[in-house]
Each structure stands twice: as C-alpha cells, then as structure tokens.
Design goal:
Elements lengths: L1 H31 L1 H21 L2 H20 L8 H21 L9 E2 L6 H8 L7 H10 L2 H4 L2 H5 L2 H6 L17 H18 L5 H4 L2 E3 L3 H4 L5 E2 L6 H24 L4 H5 L4 H8 L4 E5 L9 H5 L6 H6 L14 H5 L5 E5 L16
Parallel strand pairs: 2-3
Antiparallel strand pairs: 1-2, 4-5
Helix pairs in contact: 2-3, 3-4, 5-10
C-alpha cells in the first residue's frame, strides 16, 4: 500500500513536471513568434471580415496572401542567425512587393476570374478611389496598411512590405550618414502636390475614377457579371499608366538620391509622400521598440545600425519606448544589440518628440 502511494505520488510529480515543461515551452513559443502571430491574426481577421461583409472572395485571398507573406518573414526572423536575419525581411518584402506590384498594380491576380484590371496603388490612385466614396481597391489598402493599421504595427509596412524599399535595401549604402536637416519637409510637399494634382483633375477637368479604370476581359466572365470599363488591351487603361509611370519616377529618384547621399533610405526620409499619412498613427502604435535599461550597456550599436537615424538611447534615457514616427520596425537594432536588451513590446503610449541623428553642417 505504501509502495503504491509512493508510486502514485511519483507519477503525479512526473505529470506535473511534464505539464510545467509543456507550459514553459508554449510560453517560449508565444514569446518567440509573438510578432508573427499578431500579424497573422490581424490580416486573417481582416480577410475573413471583408469577405463576409462585402461578399467578395477576392478580399479573403488578397489579405491572406499578404498576411502569410509577411508572417513567413517574421516567422523566419527568430530562427535565423544574426548575420542572416536580414534575409527574412527581404523574403517578406519580395513576396508582398511582387504581389502588390504585379498582382494588383498590373491586375494579374484577376486572371483567376478571367480578366485583367490594373489598380494604381500609388497615392494618386488612393485619392481617385476615395473621391468616389468607394471603399475598395487602394482605399482599403491605405486604410489598413498606411492609416489606421499604423496604430497597431506602426510603419511596419515600410520595413517589411514596401516594394520600393525592397529594391533600395539591396543598394550598398546601408550605413546612414545621418539626416539632412530640414529635408524631411520635402515629403509633405510631395504629398501636397500629388493630392492637389488629383483634386484639380477631378474637380476642374472632370477626370474621374471612371476615366482611369479599365478592364480587359478574356473569358467573358466579367462581362457576364455586368462589368463596365471594358478595354481591348492593357495599354488603353489609364490606371495602368498612372501606376507604371509613378513607380518609374519613384524608383529612379530613389536610386539617384541614394547614390548622391550615400544612404539607401534617403527617399523614405526626404521624398516619400506616404510617410506623412503613416506618421500620424505610428506615434500611437501599440507595437514599438523597447530597451531594457538593466541589460543596456549604452554601446550605441543600435543607433549605428538604424537606417532611419533614430537616436534610440535618447528615448531609453528618458524611460520611454521608441515613440519616433520614423521607426519602420525593421528590427536591425534588435539584431545588433550585443546584450539582447532591445525587443518589440506591446502597450499603448504616444510621443511627439523626435530624436534623430542629423548631419552637422559644414
């Protein structure tokens, strides 16, 4: 009887140990892949919600493709060696960028249903759609990735998904020399000019979304569904040319600017018109970089690695998370930290002070 009691007690202790180990392993898994899981939950929830509300399976496929592509990169990031972690972000950028540029920009994704319908994913396309009062295409993309979504994941789009940045990050000038003082205002000028251009075309010249849109129908499916804006070729669609020419200007100017200033992300810092939209929500982002002051040795490796010139230690000294709206969540600072003092954290806070490394004027 005594032996049975001892055996039962030993068995219970073994089960308790196994349960504790299982819980510990699960907690480690959640901590390791928390960012990936957060993104997958957000994008899959959006995909299912829009599919059910709008009754269009396209939105289910669209946001599951984007979410899975980003999730793949974020899932690989924790398991890769420090010297190879940049590959995870590059995979995400290429997958999302290719889908957005070719699949949506050129309208290739719609071939699943037998037609081709390019969408201008640039700022001008967003304005053309929003002025019609239609919550579709670029409006949904901008709302989730670049306006309201920034309150959840900041400017993560810039670090993990932007098709322009995917090319810029391949350039050789990875170590930023610091920011040009005052040049950041050029982004607001670009934003204003793009916005004014669309408003002038719409309200003065009556050039509306119906003018820019076009569909090339190969199977008659689109026609049978009562589709409009039919064209005989891709080249007759204005929205295609808006998107193509806009991107050619973006890529050309960004590469030239990077070469002149020896800074891969010069376009993002000084010219990109999307940044002003994203900065508003990014300040209140739930997901931000945080530094453990007990582990931090103030070596400055994080600041030297930051492609956006954020003075991370300034925020740390003030007991704050990195509330800079310039943070693109690239996690380069986390990668290079020798004491693992930096990580992504989740909570609500907001800050308006920008601590950025600015070049000294000669």
């Amino acid at each position: 009887m005594v032996e049975e009691t001892k055996e039962t007690k030993k068995t219970n202790e073994t089960r308790a140990d196994q349960t504790e180990k299982g819980q510990t392993s699960f907690h480690k898994f959640l901590k390791k892949y928390s960012i990936m899981l957060s993104i997958l939950i957000i994008f899959y929830a959006v995909a299912i919600t829009l599919w059910l509300v709008l009754d269009q399976i396209f939105y289910l496929l669209n946001f599951m493709i984007i979410g899975t592509s980003i999730g793949l990169g974020l899932g690989l990031w924790p398991v890769l060696q420090k010297s190879k972690k940049h590959i995870a972000r590059k995979i995400s950028q290429v997958l999302v960028g290719s889908y957005m540029f070719i699949g949506l920009g050129f309208g290739v994704v719609y071939l699943i249903w037998g037609y081709l319908e390019p969408e201008n994913m640039q700022l001008e396309g967003f304005w053309f759609w929003i002025l019609t009062g239609t919550f579709a295409a670029g409006v949904i993309h901008y709302s989730i990735a670049k306006i309201f979504g920034t309150t959840l994941f900041g400017r993560g789009w810039c670090g993990w998904s932007c098709w322009t940045a995917a090319v810029l990050d391949l350039l050789p000038w990875k170590k930023s020399p610091g920011r040009k003082k005052g040049w950041g205002y050029l982004r607001y000028v670009h934003f204003a000019l793009s916005t004014i251009l669309v408003f002038v075309l719409v309200f003065i010249f009556n050039y509306t979304l119906s003018t820019t849109r076009g569909v090339v129908d190969f199977t008659g499916f689109y026609t049978s569904q009562g589709g409009e804006h039919l064209k005989s070729s891709l080249y007759q669609i204005h929205e295609f040319w808006w998107f193509l020419i806009g991107n050619l200007i973006y890529y050309t100017s960004s590469i030239v600017l990077a070469a002149i200033l020896k800074d891969n992300r010069a376009f993002c810092k000084y010219v990109c018109p999307i940044a002003p939209l994203m900065k508003v929500g990014a300040r209140a982002s739930i997901m931000k970089i945080a530094v453990d002051t007990e582990k931090c040795i103030q070596c400055g490796a994080c600041e030297r690695a930051c492609p956006m010139d954020i003075k991370i230690l300034e925020y740390t000294d003030k007991g704050s998370r990195v509330t800079s709206a310039e943070c693109i969540q690239c996690m380069e600072c986390i990668t290079v930290c020798p004491t693992s003092a930096i990580n992504i954290s989740y909570r609500f806070d907001i800050g308006f002070k920008e601590y950025l490394a600015v070049q000294e004027t000669s």
